[in-house]
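Incident log entry.

Two folding requests arrived from the same account within the same minute. Monitoring flagged them as a possible duplicate submission, but the sequences differ. Recording both here for audit purposes.

Request one:
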Amino acid sequence: MTESNELSRSLASFVVSTRYEDIPEHTREMAKRCLLDGLGVSLAATGLAPVCRPFVEHAMEQGGHTQSTVFASGVRLPAAMAAFANGALAHALDFEDAHDESLLHPNAPTIPAALAVCEAFGPIEGKELIAALVLGCDVACRLSLALRVPLDEYGWYPPPMIAAFGATAAVGRLLKLNEQQLIDAFSLTLGQATCSAELKFSPHSDIRAVRDAFPAQIAVTSVLLARKGVRGFDRPFEGRAGFFALYARGAYEPETVTHAFGESFAIDRISFKPYPSCRGTHVYIEAAAQLVREHRIDSSDIVSIKLVGSRLNLMLAEPVAQKRRPATAIDAKFSLPFTVATALRCGTVTLDDFTDRALQDAAVLDLAGRANFSADPARGTAGPDVLRGSVELELSGGRRVKLQIDQPSGSPSRPASEAALIEKFRDCCRRARSEPAPPLIDRWVEQILTLEKCADAGEIARLM
């Protein structure tokens, strides 16, 4: 592990020095699509995820300057508290975009943090917001891809921890930190960003749903403190007690963090979700629904359901009793038996399938009780093996049908169309606590998809 500060400084320099004009057009378009998708999912959460309400209430109780809007509330709060409240919404429905290679949701905390800052410290041009989203996503994914050991082996839950650094990079870029200040901001984030993998083993916990409130707030707070002159560490990432030593015990490849800066961007490889559940469930949902359609299967004829995939997906199938009868919506979204049973019963999986009533559907629970997952020892826990999965159904009469899917829908090799993303956004908006009028939804779509023309990106948040 290198003792120089080249890694941290190189990463900060990349964020600070990359110009909007240096970013390819198709990459800019992806950033706008991520913003559209993330905002839609967050608005839907205001109506569908009551677990977020305490975070909004807590943020409101703090008072302070009316800088940034809390979505679907009409309330404005200090930027860090608005980022906190809106960050709780980002993952609550588990419907936001994902970076499959790094196993992250890099944009979940970044979008609420970046929008809060655009509104509070603007006017900030739409071009700058696009660049910040691109660079924030890149920082988070580079850090994750450099790891050579799963952090959960040491008890950590990486998605919100690593995404916090991406959000910090994006906010730092928007507020024009210099290279040293951004290193300081990364250091301040290192002192705050943490998440225990215990959330995977606590089915009644709310933390898995609202986890991105914390990195969104941390990013804004760290950058504002660094801008005021608070000094951090010399080597927040590669130091003797830096990020990689602290969380991965030094098991990482520095070259992966800095390789080919600006030649390709992680946001180009973002996947957009067609189903509101853990990305690891998607190939199984798709395979189950396709088997039912192609073979005209009545779910009552299904005797057993055999699911096979990477051992990483064991967390979606065990403990067996818990996953067959999930207690909460977020636990159901992380359940292979429940999501596959829903797909077999309903032909798809939608936001309506995780209500309290849906979690008690006797027909779905009966099917979930027939599902068994087995890990293929030949498959790894990284790369394409994680997303590849098969569903085999045993039907009454002894007939068996099987389907394997290697890449889920919405992935870079099977991308979602812009039209599909717009329709998803509209559907999500209609589920908000206060349903926006159709002309306002149209305005949001137009603003976001032409963001490069916007002189004040904060206006998007103000209209929320």
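Request two (distinct sequence, not a duplicate):
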Amino acid sequence: MEFHTFYDYFLYTKSWAYVMMFVVLPLYVVYWNFVLFPRKKGRNGESKGH
């Protein structure tokens, strides 16, 4: 099969699952680390309250 553009190839392969995986997973890691459980560090780099 011949593809004239990358978009034709992309539509043929139906790789939305891979695209969403590489977009959503890093965003979820950032959300988990900085929004849900932010680290409050003291002057010496140790986390407070633990």
